[in-house]
């Protein structure tokens, strides 16, 4: 049985065929603020990234999974990043690319699957997420999955409009 399969979605590893999808996401200026990106990525760099995506999470310190519906339509990405096996923690981020598909439970199910995977397979003690104070949908998503707001980084991110925004820190500490 596939560990990373839910009722509506499944999570899979990146494939070479994801080049155009990743290129579109990484070069979408609307999401740069969330990912701290400031410059576009070339197809060449993304192709190199995909060629190395097979690296183990212990080597790469990150894991990017594609969120697909059961018909194998690509819906978005979920990332474990800043993986720290010495302290048993990782950051997590979720993106459903089509705004019309947000709020339908895909991100919720992906986050639940990755949270369980982190606990049972990676033996994590905790996951954390950094969420912009105005990202109400993400705040609700993470809170509904048991993440707790533990702090605020004041004036953390500078928007393209020249405004500094606070960033919230959420944690999910597993009970073992």
Automatic annotation (TrEMBL):
Residues of the N-acetyltransferase domain: 9-170
PROSITE patterns reported for this sequence = GNAT
* Family annotation (InterPro entries): Acyl_CoA_acyltransferase, GNAT_dom
Q: Which domain of life is it from?
A: Bacteria
Q: Which PANTHER family match?
A: GNAT-FAMILY ACETYLTRANSFERASE, SPERMIDINE N(1)-ACETYLTRANSFERASE
Query: Know the name of this protein?
Result: GNAT family N-acetyltransferase
State the species of origin.
Answer: Aquimarina addita
